[in-house]
Amino acid sequence: MSSQSGPYYDLPVARIVEETHDARSIILSVPEELKATFSYTAGQFLTFGVPLEGHQWVRCYSLASCPDTESEHKVTVKRVEDGRISNWFNDSVTPGQTLHVMKPAGHFCLQARETPLVFFSGGSGITPVISILKSALATTQRSMHLVYGNRDQDSIIFGAELRALEAEYPGRLKLVHRLDDTDGFLDLPSARSVVASAPGADFYVCGPGPFMDVVEEALAAESVPDERIFIERFVLPELEAPAPGAAAASTGEADSAQVYLDGGVHTVAVQPEETILAACHRAGIDAPCACTEGYCGACMARVKAGEVEMLLNDGGLDDDQVEEGWVLTCQTRLKSAGVEIEYPDAE
Ligand SMILES: Cc1cc2nc3c(=O)[nH]c(=O)nc-3n(C[C@H](O)[C@H](O)[C@H](O)COP(=O)(O)OP(=O)(O)OC[C@H]3O[C@@H](n4cnc5c(N)ncnc54)[C@H](O)[C@@H]3O)c2cc1C
């Protein structure tokens, strides 16, 4: 399914930069004819289809480059312990290799305001944050405070680039590193004091779960309104399991769909209130997904037969794709019997 007409596009790897002992940047070469398709806003991400061992793995990586100041498309992948695809990116991807990539997506982007900005970023969560930060430095006069948590000095991604930005924009960027081995994990009092020191600011948060939990608690404790808080989650919330008894209660109404994935076909029982993606996962079928909220496109599949209802398309699909019969399976329910759904193959 990969081609130059989507949903996956073939992009060669131009260069690789080893950032730290466990993270590397992949710089992609975007051909002239795909420049418009791959134009993006700081903070957006790319979705990669990685065919490995007979399965199509789908993973999102934020663009760490900045469209306002750089022409390259750069993602930075940090190893996750026992992670299948983050380690593949770090061990196996080489310059010249072609990767299968969906066009940029995501809403974790700068809002057009003049208020100060506070960024809380942990580990690989720096990727969208540095993109937004570079964009805000170049295109606004806003002041910025970045709290950047890492395990230790050697784990800091983009340390030199951040220092250079601090020097280039004196008085606009305050950079505070928080290292687990010397400062301990970010705690509630420290996070609250940063939040309290920036009344009226917009807050951007991206990092590991426990780091984000502390920041969210601090924001709530300081009564920061929701419209000033922007959060990007790298780790999926578990797909909600059906309520106990729900399956039994609705067994009579459950329908089934034929799901084409990885060259095979599965018959999947789908409950009336259940999405196709949730039904696949409940049946043990590893259908691709990432955000599960309708904005990333990772779970897109084409309807080959039958009628379905897509509850939300929050930018995951464009109008042409909807017209062509693509749906976001995380948001799609059955409307008729005989539905057939085909996930794209990146090979
Ligand atoms: C919108 C978005 C943007 C992202 N941007 C980036 C980015 O710029 N750089 C980057 O390195 N990653 C990013 N990620 C995370 C990335 O998509 C993968 O989830 C991550 O690389 C792990 O994939 P894997 O196949 O190696 O691990 P899997 O084989 O899927 O998982 C292995 C184990 O690690 C846990 N796990 C999964 N993801 C993480 C994680 N991020 N941190 C800690 N534990 C995890 C899983 O629960 C599982 O137990 C982003 C995710 C999203 C949704």
Description:
The protein is globular. The model is unreliable at 239-252 (pLDDT under 50). The chain is of the alpha/beta class and 347 residues long. The strands form four sheets. Strands 4-3-6-1-2-5 form a six-stranded antiparallel sheet, covered by helices on one side. It has a five-stranded parallel sheet with strand order 9-8-7-10-11, sandwiched between helices. Strands 13-12-18-14-16 form a five-stranded mixed sheet. The longest helix is centred in the middle third of the chain and has 14 residues, at 126-139. Helices cover 22% and strands 31% of the residues. It folds into three domains: 9-101, Translation factors (Elongation Factor Tu (Ef-tu), domain 3, Beta Barrel), CATH 2.40.30.10; 117-232, Rossmann fold; 250-342, Ubiquitin-like (UB roll). The termini are close together. It has nine helices and 18 strands. Helix 5 (188-196) crosses helix 6 (209-221). The protein binds flavin-adenine dinucleotide (FAD). Flavin-adenine dinucleotide (FAD) binds at residues 45, 59-62, 75-78, 80, 82-87, 106, 124, 127, 208, 232, 234-235, 290-291.
